[in-house]
Design goal:
Alpha-Beta Plaits, alpha+beta, single chain, two-stranded antiparallel sheet, 21% helix, 8-stranded mixed sheet
């Protein structure tokens, strides 16, 4: 089952793991039985293929889950709006369902690109225009990214950082009135992070008029065929 949803308001501060838990509990209360994996440590087959950064709103996030084979009512139902209503009733304010699609084939989804909208407090942005132009001129855009490693007496102090060229992850950056429109690419190598965009443009939280919003997510879809 494919579920598209919107994230608004304070619910944007939920982490990726907490968002998954919210949907697990909502499905249980709505009577939607999620299929579990096999083995010694079974877990619900439910995923958000594009994690949302904490504090960022989203226009069109995607949830993928497998329902149990025994739920013929759901699998055979053409009334997806009824299932959508059942699930919507169990979600907290700020999580709004946009669509529910009961797929008969297994599919995987990989993000290709997305747009990040940063709305600034109204003022003269001439300096920002110059910074954007400067970022786009170079062939490379090298940043230092935390690796998550902790250094000890046996490792160098800067070993928890690595240099990353984020230029391939940026399709474009445009300033439209008070909105910075950043189009980002995704690849197996990763993508650019929101905090890295802020650092490159020398932006701070107090510069924002409204929360950062992610929109226009493009997906690569693959059908999994049983052998």
């Amino acid at each position: 089952m494919l579920v598209k949803f919107r994230v608004r308001g304070n619910i944007r501060f939920l982490s990726h793991a907490d968002t998954v838990k919210v949907f697990q509990r909502a499905c249980a209360r709505a009577g939607i039985e999620i299929r579990h994996s096999e083995g010694f440590n079974p877990h619900p087959i439910l995923s958000l293929p594009l994690p949302r950064p904490v504090g960022v709103e989203s226009d069109d996030d995607l949830l993928i889950l497998q329902i149990c084979h025994e739920q013929d009512e759901l699998r055979a139902s053409s009334d997806e709006s009824r299932i959508m209503a059942r699930l919507s009733e169990q979600l907290p304010e700020g999580l709004e369902l946009l669509s529910v699609n009961i797929a008969q084939t297994k599919r995987t989804f990989h993000p290709c690109s997305a747009t990040c909208v940063i709305t600034l407090i109204k003022k003269n942005h001439d300096d920002l225009k110059a910074k954007i132009a400067n970022l786009l001129t170079g062939e490379h855009l090298i940043i230092k990214r935390k690796t998550g490693k902790k250094h000890s007496q046996f490792t160098a102090p800067n070993s928890e950082f690595k240099e990353v060229d984020v230029k391939p992850f940026l399709k474009s950056i445009e300033l439209e009135d008070d909105n910075i429109i950043v189009q980002c690419r995704f690849s197996p190598a990763g993508s650019i992070r929101i905090e890295e965009i802020f650092k490159l443009l020398e932006l701070k939280a107090e510069d924002l008029a409204v929360p950062v919003r992610r929109t226009n997510i493009q997906w690569q879809e693959n059908i999994i065929r049983d052998l």
